[in-house]
Amino acid sequence: MKTTLVIAVIALASAVGVPTGSTTEPGSQRSATPRESRIPVGNANLYCREVGRGRSIIVLHGGPDFDQSYLLPEMDRLSDSFRLIYYDQRGRGKSADGVRPEDVTLASDIADLEKVRQHFQVDPVVLLGHSWGTVLALEYALRYPERVSHMILMNPAPASADDYKQLRTEWLEKRADDMEHRKTIAASAAYKEGDPDAVIAYYRIHFKPAFARPEYYEKVIASLTASFTKEGILKARAIEDRLMNDTWSMPEYDLLPKLKSLRIPTLVISGDHEFIPAATAEHIRQAIPNARLATLKGCGHFTYLECPVAVHQQIDAFFRGGMKPDRLH
Q1: Residues paired with 328 in a beta bridge
Q2: Model-level pTM?
Q3: Which helix H or strand E contains 33, and what residues bound it?
Q4: 298 φ/ψ sector (left φ>0, alpha ψ -120 to 50, else beta)
Q5: Distance of alpha carbon 94 from alpha carbon 233, whole angstroms
Q6: pLDDT, tens digit, for every residue of 130-180?
Q7: Measured in Å, how far apart are the chain's first and last C-alpha atoms?
Q8: N or C: which end of the chain has fewer CB within 10 A?
Q9: From CA 298, how far away is CA 244, in angstroms rounded?
Q10: CB 241 within 8 A of CB 8
Q11: Does domain 35-328 sit in CATH 3.40.50.1820?
Q12: Phi and psi (nearest 5°) for 84?
């Protein structure tokens, strides 16, 4: 979990309430029982979780050093309208057993996503990526555009090294003290050894500006103790390093010109309190022909958590074709 990574996401232990002013919450009457399965890939067995019915959506979690658990149970609100297929990416969460960090690359992550699509017989597929998961969705779509029917890019991570550099610059300008504090923690022996308490202290600083509503911040931080183990931290950190080397660490990394070739209906969802620069989402929206951007009021980096009703409404409208671009809710 290196200090440069901004798109790690944290497991949440319990559901949270409906935002102030909302009415009936989509998904509040869910009755479907999740179904679990495993998909063998190389030395790994990908852990999958399937819930709901209707149009199938493969959900790509963020990190890249985390797993699907942070999305639950909040993302399951969509299961009243959709069949959601989650999986822990190779080497992370319940897909970690038997995996060495050197087994994981961007190419292997893309190949694993294709295995998941084939296993669940979804052709073409709807991809919903959150944070780092948006990069994986875009990389897959560029390789297999005919296999993707729609994309939902939620709180997207940078799609280019330049946008990643801009993120770092903005953070240094706006949160210099926080960045220095994080740097000090990351240099400590405890952090380097994967001590969960040290990592928790790091993320208390890292994620504080990621929320529009302070009550969600404390819920996320409180969940870290249950989520982190030394072994898991060290393996995920090594995997993260490898994926960084395949993407933002390369000065020439830039998906934006390539995205202009896509003809895949795309919804980009962001928040007006997003801690990734707004230009990141806007550049993706501009690059993909006819993509739509919804910037939700009162939301940070975890829009599905802070604004679940608005997220559900935007996704429903996207499939109906009724959403207007750049609309604030």
Answers
A1: 295
A2: 0.88
A3: none
A4: left
A5: 13
A6: 999 999 999 999 999 999 999 999 999 999 999 999 999 998 888 889 999
A7: 33
A8: C
A9: 30
A10: no
A11: yes
A12: -95, 130
